[in-house]
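Note to self: keep these together.
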Amino acid sequence: MVKKKLPAGIDDFKKIIENDYYFADKSMFIDELLNKKSEVTLLPRPRRFGKTLNMSMLNYFFNIEDRELNRNLFNNLNISNTDKMIYQGEYPVIYISLKDVKVNNWELCLEKFIGLIKKEYKKYGLILEEKRDAQENSLLNLSEHLYEKYGKKVIILIDEYDTPLVTAHSQGYYDEAIFFFRNFLSAALKGNPYLEFAVLTGILRIAKESIFSGLNNITVSTILDNNFNYFGLTEDEVEQALKYYELDYELEEIKKWYNGYKFGDKLVYNPWSIINCINNKELNPYWINTSDNALIKQLLAKNDKKVFEELELIFKGESIWETISENIIFDDLNNTNTVWSLMLFSGYLTYEKMRISPITGLKSYSLKIPNQEIKSFFRQSFIETYTKGDVHFYGTMMEDLFLGNLNSFINKFKKMYMSAVSYHDTGDSEKYYHHFMLGVLLTLGDKYIITSNRESGYGRYDIALEPKDKNNYGQIFEFKIGDKNSIEDKAREALVQINEKKYDISMKNNGVSKVIKIGMAFSGKNVAIESEIN
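Structure:
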């Protein structure tokens, strides 16, 4: 039997149905939307979880244009068995997607955005005026025209509404962008007498004060809520797809790689990764290759003690508790808690549990890496951050350490360190170098139990890597700082300290017979290293 094609990279609902691509039926999204009908609904979800496809489906369902042809698209879907079919083809629809409005200056951003609006105007034989107030009121004015033409109020669908704003922040023109889009959205969504309802999707819920000022008619459902769970794939949907493509024997491995996201109280899979995994019949990190990784680089660049301690826990498969803000304020991005919120809502982390403080009433969530795909993303990002992208060089350096080829490891580390510290500001305390080394070593979390500042013997070591396979080398690191002329002595002093204080005793009591001991001393961009194995 010839199998249906998978819709890799296809997010047009009509194209998927008419060409008989494999499709997980999400049409009851329409039913819930109508049952919970709000004037404006905002649905933030991570990228590649089916937002654009769902918005395309809404467009084809409600749009009064081509209503009879579009009705056939829903013939065999769950929504066709409900009373909501009376709404099919009943409304004029304005549908724009901002997912590709990613440019490096405000002039280009406005030009690209206005181009999308002009295209929507052209569909109805209209021309958008070039004046600024006409641009800001473009959807309001188009709503009025469509109302006059059809005698019915308008549905507005805006996909990936926050893409221009996230890009504007990273490219340095956020103030211009937020001023324009605040006025644009306010005109379209606040007090628009021609609006039936509107649906917006994006990744983030940008704070109301920043973008939705004065908009009192908005309902928001994030991944922390139990509403509108039609994004991503459920376990049943993944099992059905794997069975259809005769890959059901891979279910457990696919769970490890792509499952683990929690939307409300449901566990879901990343559909982009599932589609590509089935297509290629290979487990690979597909989702992470669709982003510029700016968020994790921002997190790593902080070199913050709390961040690294928590990343250490995450790499060991544990959870961290953080207060999460559902409203993202870009001015607060230097706040570590805001970065964790960004990581959660963008899909780099997921949550397990929620608790409310009896004192403050604030909600906090237990965060963790959802699956192997995201863990490989973190690992790759650490390597790129600390080696300036020379992943192969890093790999051979860590292989030398793993195999006990210490002279080769030391030579490569010194070369890598000289390059890496030009990227970071060198610190004047041991803490800076401790965090730097922890970042370098955290990528080894699959093969080692990595701990820092723990008691063993007669003191506290700086970093220890206890092998999960006791036949491999254990590793203990001790760090010192000094001036350029004293670091050789300081490195020897660090190695002596490991031996005198018997930092290896806990590891040896756990069955590790061979331990690599490394004393390091730093002074700015200079490093000295002493090592031994016993």
